Amino acid sequence: MDWKSIGSKILEYAPEIGSALINPVGAVSGLAIKALSDVLGVSEGDLTPEKAAALISADPEIALKAKIADNDFIIKKRDQEIKGLQVKLQDVASARTRETEIVRITGKKDINLYVLAWFVVAGFFVLVGLLCFHTLPLGSTSVVFMLFGALATGFGQVLQYFFGSSASSQAKTNLMAAGATAGK
User: Fold this and answer.
1) For the residues of 71-136, what is the DSSP string, one character each?
2) Is 20 helix (H, G, I), strand (E, B) or coil?
């Protein structure tokens, strides 16, 4: 017996926990095992698939307990997603802060950022043009497609940095600040 078979048994009562046990992915599977151990009243370290199977079949109220645990599991999973998004937003904010601080200290924009962005954009379009109008040598396709993937990712990041939601948010903040000073 393994965790996948336990996941299959509780899938009808607790679909989120069952799915996480059937298809374990990173910390989510750990959360699922913890949720299952809480339902069964066993410490996480003592819980084995065999013990879980025996406890599930012995407890007639397991469906209700599992449904409650499934709801708690969903909340914990969402909390992890929120924390991940907060880290991403802090990263974007720190990039914006860096650029603002450079302008504040030096009085001019960091040209390196713009040069790098233009190289990525130009490289992306040049490679797209080459792929559209030229046949690749037989042995070089994997290297070229790997380069294309990297450039496509970089191109997306450049667009997100300059035209993403934080850029429009910055523009809105600048407009609001201009309106506040005009009203004085």
Assistant:
1) HHHHHHHHHHHHHHHHHHHHHHHHHHHHHHHHHHHHSS--HHHHHHHHHHHHHHHHHHHHHHHSPP
2) helix
**118 lies in the same domain as 71:** no
Whether residue 126 is contained in a domain is answered as yes
Q: pTM of the full predicted structure?
A: 0.45
Look up residue 123 and give its amino acid. G
Q: Is residue 175 part of a domain?
A: yes
Backbone angles phi and psi of 47, in degrees to 5 = -80, 125
Distances (CA, A) of 128 to 149, 155, 170: 11, 12, 31
CA distance 126 to 138: 20
Look at the chain and report how many structural domains it folds into: 2
> Structural domain of residue 25, as residue ranges?
3-82
Does residue 6 contact residue 56 with C-beta atoms inside 8 Å? yes
Give the contacts of 45 (CB within 8 A, at least 6 positions apart).
Answer: none
- Structural domain contains residue 92: no
> What is the distance between the alpha carbons of residues 9 and 84, in angstroms, rounded to a whole number?
31
User: Is 88 among the domain residues?
Assistant: no
Angle at alpha carbon of residue 82, lines to 175 and 11, rounded to 5°: 145
Q: Model confidence over 73-116: pLDDT tens digits?
A: 888 888 888 988 888 887 777 777 777 888 888 888 888 888 99
